[in-house]
Structures are given as structure tokens and as C-alpha cells.
Write a structure and sequence with these properties.
Strand content: 15-25%
Number of strands: 4
Helix content: 40-55%
CATH topology: Sufe protein. Chain: A
Distance between the termini: 40 Å
CATH class: Alpha Beta
Number of helices: 5
Structural class: alpha+beta
Radius of gyration: 14 Å
Order of helices and strands: HEEEHHHHE
Largest sheet: 4 strands, mixed
Number of domains: 1
């Protein structure tokens, strides 16, 4: 029988091998580029926001499995949410991955993103998991410079 960590590992591998919403959105009205200089992850986030609601979101990326899986999972979680709800989810996700390794995960706050809680055991990987979120925030703010994890 699979334990929870094995299940989470399978979710991450699946999202890396078969990323969801992995394409350039032609009708995006918000975009941003993200870069993690420590491991070389690069990604672009595309959003279609109407009246403060994220109608659609997609990404293109070249990077490690954690970076791609996190972006894939993020797009699924924020699609259909208000920008304010996405901000709240970002804060909850950030709190989860930066918490002490023994801190229980509140899946009620982060949903399926709980699969990425294990990165907190590897501090260098936290930036891989959060790059897409920083890039999403840059797209929301319509910042012209690339979002980074530094």
C-alpha cells in the first residue's frame, strides 16, 4: 500500500511528465517571465483576467521536475479564482513550503498543492516550487521585468 509521501511523489512525477495548461495562451491579457538563477528554471505565465477573475491561465517552462510540476498544479488551482483568492492561496502555499519539516500540512488551505510540502525538507528546492507563484504575482501586477526567486 502506498504511503502519503509515495502518493505525493507520484502526483509530482505525473505533473512533470504531463503538465496541465502547458501552452502559450494567445489571448492572454497578463503575462510574465520568471527565472531561477540558482538552478536555471525559466518559465512564462499567461493569464486571462476578466473583472478580477482568472478566467484562464497557462505556462511554458524549461526546468526541473519540481518547477514544472508546481506550475502545472498552480494553474489548476488558480483557474476560476479571483485574483484575491489566488493571492491567499499563494501565501498559504509559501507558508507550507517554508514551514518547519514537522509542521502538519493543512490540505484544506492548499488542496492538492499539499503534494509539494516535501520540498521544505530541501531548502534549495523551495525556490523551484515557488518560482511559478512569483511569476504569477508579476503577471497580476503587470511587471515588465522578469520575476526571480532572489
Amino acid at each position: 500500500m502506498l504511503d502519503l509521501q509515495d502518493l505525493y511523489q507520484e502526483v509530482i512525477v505525473d505533473h512533470n511528465k504531463h503538465p496541465r495548461n502547458f501552452h502559450r495562451m494567445e489571448d492572454a491579457n497578463r503575462t510574465a517571465e520568471g527565472f531561477n538563477p540558482l538552478c536555471g528554471d525559466r518559465l512564462n505565465v499567461y493569464m486571462k483576467v476578466v473583472d478580477g477573475v482568472i478566467q484562464d491561465v497557462s505556462f511554458e517552462a524549461s526546468g526541473c521536475a519540481i518547477s514544472v510540476a508546481s506550475a502545472s498544479m498552480m494553474t489548476q488551482q488558480v483557474k476560476g479564482k479571483t485574483e484575491q483568492e489566488a493571492d491567499t492561496l499563494f501565501r498559504s502555499f509559501q507558508d507550507m513550503v517554508t514551514a518547519d519539516a514537522d509542521t502538519p500540512v493543512d490540505a484544506g488551505q492548499v488542496g492538492k498543492l499539499a503534494a509539494l510540502a516535501g520540498v521544505r525538507r530541501f531548502p534549495m528546492r523551495i525556490k523551484c516550487a515557488t518560482l511559478c507563484w512569483h511569476t504569477l504575482k508579476a503577471a497580476q501586477a503587470q511587471k515588465p521585468q522578469a520575476a526571480t526567486t532572489e
